[in-house]
Amino acid sequence: MCFTSNLKNVQINMKNTLSQSLRSDWM
Questions:
Q1: Would you call 27 helix, strand, or coil by DSSP?
Q2: Contacts by 6-14 with C-beta closer than 8 Å and gap 24+?
Q3: Rounded Cα gap, residues 3 and 17, in angstroms
C-alpha cells in the first residue's frame, strides 16, 4: 500500500513540476 501511494505521489509531483516549468517558460 505504501509503495503504490508513494508512486502516485511521485507522479503528482512530477506533473506539478512539469506544469510549473511549462508556465515559467511561457511567461
A1: coil
A2: none
A3: 21
User: Is the per-residue pLDDT at 4 higher than 60?
Assistant: yes
| Segments in 1-27 forming alpha helices (H) | 2-26
- Report the distance separating Cα 23 and Cα 6, nearest Å: 26
Q: Flag whether the pTM goes above 0.70.
A: no
- For the chain, the C-alpha Rg in angstroms (whole number) is 12
The owner of cell 508556465 is: 23
